[in-house]
Specification:
Elements: H1 2-9, H2 21-39, H3 44-57, H4 60-63, H5 67-71, H6 75-94, H7 99-121, H8 124-134
Length: 136
């Protein structure tokens, strides 16, 4: 939020505040996965996969550094591809995909889609929220 405010006030960049939906969505996904993983720390099959999903979610900042991936909204697709590799591992080793993936991935895709929508479309209600957060 500090850098968004800096970009808006000092650098006079327009529309930067709408990007806040991406880190907020990341925090929701990462926090949910890690909190659930901590709750299920005594169930290693659940815990391991939830920590893996949360770790993959953190990769969007790294993948988003590639301009092509960011400009074409492909960074979340790349993250979901990493999770898909975890699903493929389960399929090869266990003969099935673990149910954590079947519940977590669709929920993640919904949050990711909503974050992309609010970033790219920047509806008026989101503008009001970001302006209030940034103190404008």
């Amino acid at each position: 939020m500090v850098m968004t405010r800096f970009d808006t006030v000092v650098l006079q960049q327009k529309g930067i505040d709408s990007f806040l939906s991406i880190p907020f969505g990341d925090m929701i996904i990462f926090g949910s996965c890690m909190a659930t993983a901590i709750y299920w720390r005594k169930k290693p099959e659940y815990h391991r996969r939830l920590v893996f999903i949360a770790s993959c979610q953190l990769m969007d900042a790294a993948i988003g550094r590639f301009n092509f991936m960011l400009d074409h909204n492909l960074f979340y697709l790349a993250l979901d591809g990493l999770i898909g590799l975890g699903m493929a591992r389960d399929w090869v080793v266990d003969g099935r995909v673990h149910k954590i993936y079947l519940y977590a991935l669709p929920a993640m895709i919904v949050v990711q889609g909503f974050a992309i929508y609010t970033w790219r479309v920047n509806p008026t209600w989101w503008v009001a929220i970001t302006q209030a957060i940034l103190g404008f």
